[in-house]
Design goal:
alpha/beta, five-stranded parallel beta sheet, single chain, Rossmann fold
Length: 497
């Protein structure tokens, strides 16, 4: 900072007295990044071919814009990442609440300082992080919060008339001058507050409390909203909608690999107590739960299923595996598919149910999603692979009691007698020197996958009946009910037969 100009005169000599608007500054920095091939919006995954090109076009056009999308689509993260397109720091008049430009001040106090001190006016430098102001729109936000109000106490102390500009108490918008002002959930703002945004979006100025004082603010304004609310039938005022330059639609990940990459980036799975190894099929099953939830007719499409579902689910899956490893003194944490049932508290809290779903219950809907997701991932990995040896072993009366709290060695030991099971487990990509936790996880995945395909069955007592079970061994009505409900309480035995 010592090499930066410290007075207005030094600043004039360095810049030639030229100044840029915020939108031009952001545009110039974006152009430079495009020319050098620098990564745009780091940390934003899955939008390279859809959202990011539209964002780039809006910025190049110097537009105010709005991101429309359901919850958990990285809208707020995109807005906060816009600060990367600002200069490292800008010159400001010291003590000015609205970060006035010393080369072209707009408030009367700063103009008075400039007239009195000229090129000797000292300047401060504002970092880019301080130039982003964010506000969550709520019904209780007032016009004074956004624009400002008259401060009678300030007027009394200074002996000023209430009409004097120096009596103003600035709101969030003026305080965001020469920066980016973001409003989340725009339609939740009261109608009169939305009207108060007209001038700043079109003419670039605000008027406070009806006094004839114009502040020609320099801002980029960005917004987020839910598409359901951002309509003429919703809570948005049409003239305000008309003044927003670009309307950009966000979306959930379009492919499972993109979703896996997002969750890997965001989920906290690095535990200090021991090393964590999450098999690829576990990550895929976790993501598939979210994909199937978004397509399930029992779940409300309007509220969406946030990407936070797989993020928090993977964290709980890892924690359940960590708890098991700590209990058995294992050095490696390797989650299993059955650990997903320990993550039900995360899954059920991430979606809203339609009427049909309400009848079935959130927990049962979540269990159905897990079973279906396991089946989908299992089918994709074992397509064309013969599983009949394992199925026949169970058809001949074999049972395999397992517990989600069993150690890896116990799972491997109990599974040794099942013909073909270890060979199938190796089809998941196990390498010859795989640790016991990885082997146990692969065995569990094969068994859960076969259950999901209804080739074998499972219950808490004696096991589910196989789909081709002879009439003499048909399941009881209680077992049929349990087959539908897929009950797997944590810590209880599971019998495969």
């Amino acid at each position: 900072m010592s090499a930066l100009p410290q007075t207005l005169g030094e600043l004039r000599r360095q810049t030639g007295g030229c100044t840029r608007s915020v939108k031009q500054e952001i545009r110039d920095n974006l152009v430079r990044k495009l020319q050098t091939g620098e990564k745009l919006f780091p940390g934003i995954i899955g939008y390279d071919e859809t959202v990011i090109p539209q964002l780039v076009n809006a910025i190049l056009s110097r537009h105010n814009f709005i991101l429309l999308g359901l919850r958990g689509q990285a809208k707020s993260r995109i807005l906060r990442s816009l600060t990367d397109l600002l200069d490292d720091h800008i010159a400001v008049v010291p003590g000015c609440e609205i970060h006035d430009d010393p080369l072209d001040p707009i408030c009367s106090a700063c103009r008075a300082q400039l007239a009195a001190q000229g090129d000797g006016l000292p300047i401060d430098w504002l970092p880019r992080e301080a130039r982003f102001v964010e506000k969550l729109a709520t019904p209780d936000v007032t016009i004074a919060d956004m624009l400002g109000d008259i401060d009678p106490i300030k007027a009394a102390h200074a002996g000023l008339n209430l009409a004097d500009e120096l009596t103003m108490h600035y709101g969030l918008l003026p305080r965001a001058n020469r920066g980016i002002f973001a409003i989340n959930e725009l339609p939740d703002l009261a109608g009169k507050i939305q009207v108060g945004l007209f001038n700043i979006l079109q003419e670039g100025d605000v008027q406070i409390k009806g006094y004839p004082i114009r502040l020609e603010l320099d801002l980029m304004m960005v917004f987020t909203a839910n598409p359901e609310d951002y309509t003429a039938r919703g809570k948005i005022i049409t003239p305000l909608k008309d003044r927003i330059g670009s309307e950009i639609r966000t979306h959930y990940p379009l492919s499972r690999p993109s979703a896996v990459a997002i969750t890997t980036q965001e989920a906290w799975t690095d535990r200090t107590s021991m090393k964590v190894d999450i098999p690829g099929y576990i990550r895929e099953v976790v993501e598939e739960v979210a994909f199937q939830a978004r397509a399930d007719r029992k779940i409300d499409k309007r509220s969406g299923v946030s990407q936070r579902l797989p993020i928090t689910t993977l964290e709980l899956v890892t924690s359940n595996a960590e708890r098991r490893a700590l209990q058995h003194g294992e050095k490696m944490v390797v989650p299993r598919v059955s650990d997903l049932y320990a993550a039900l508290p995360s899954i059920t809290g991430k979606f809203e149910l339609e009427y049909e779903g309400e009848l079935r219950g959130a927990e049962q809907v979540a269990r159905d999603l897990i079973r279906s997701s396991v089946g989908t991932v299992f089918t994709s990995l074992f397509d064309g692979i013969d599983t009949r040896k394992v199925v026949e072993w169970f058809d001949l009366g074999g049972t395999l009691p397992l517990s989600d709290t069993s150690s890896a060695e116990e799972v491997i030991g109990q599974a040794r007698g099942v013909q073909g099971l270890r060979e199938l487990a190796e089809q998941t990509g196990l390498h010859p020197g795989a640790n016991a936790g990885a082997v146990a996880s692969a065995i569990d995945f094969v068994l859960e996958g076969l259950c999901a395909q209804k080739k074998i069955s499972r219950s808490d007592e004696r096991g589910y009946a196989a789909g081709n079970e002879p009439a003499a061994r048909r399941p009881t009505r209680r077992e049929e009910t349990m087959d539908e409900e897929i009950r797997i309480p944590t810590g209880k035995k599971k019998y495969y037969n």
